[in-house]
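Why does residue order matter? Because the sequence determines the fold. Keep that principle in mind as you read this record.
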Amino acid sequence: MAKTKKWAFALLRSSHPIPCLAVASFGAIFAFGNGMSLARSAVVFLAVLLQQISVGLSNDWLDAPRDKTAGRVDKPTVNGLVKVSELRAGALLAAGLAELVGIMLGTGPAITMTLMLIFGWSYNLGMKNNWSSAIPYALGFGSVPVFIGLAAQQPYWVPSWVIAVSALLGVSAHFANVLPDMIADKLTGVNALPHILGQRLSALTIAGTALAAALLTASQSPRLNPAVGATGLAITVVLVGFASALSLRTNPPRAVFPLLILAALANVVLLVLGVAK
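Structure:
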């Protein structure tokens, strides 16, 4: 029993649960805030969660050889708690289930879910190793509000600036996620855009993209109270500023990523308040 629990926990860790839950939760909040029923918002949450789990598990599956070379004993595949074959099976199963839920929501959501899976997997399959690494994040995150709009009982196309906000938050998340692993990545030959730009420019990118997202949200939301928008923007500035300062440390802590999740939450709340139907 204890061994099963340890295995289950290790499998959960391999899915990268914090970003999985964050993206799925933000999607559900946005859906519910835009008039979708609680039940349908829960289905949206499930679809996005399964898609994120598939991408997370495939990341650890495909990275297993590199993680072993780098001595990443924090990875379940390296310390022997989870087999690579189990991650592969889990990633494929989660992808299939995500697509199935997308089909249940309609043709538009099904097509968008396929694209979301392609974007996420393309990063893991090679784009993470070169200058194009931010593209799958921008496209993947930018697709989430599109998926939600098309999944509504009366499908609609979300405004282009909402897609831009999501894409910017995706790029910011990418840079924040890479920073703590830069040293280990260099040992395994990973050379994504954050590695190419270096730590200082990466910290500036984190700040610039997150703040640009907040400014777009505050300035473009048609129904957002100016005082609420200013407050949300101020909160984002504080969180992003703190995250950027931590990003400049010799060994950036993993706290950078949770701080940006909080900044993203502030943006999602502003989006809901500003575009709610």
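The mean pLDDT is 86.
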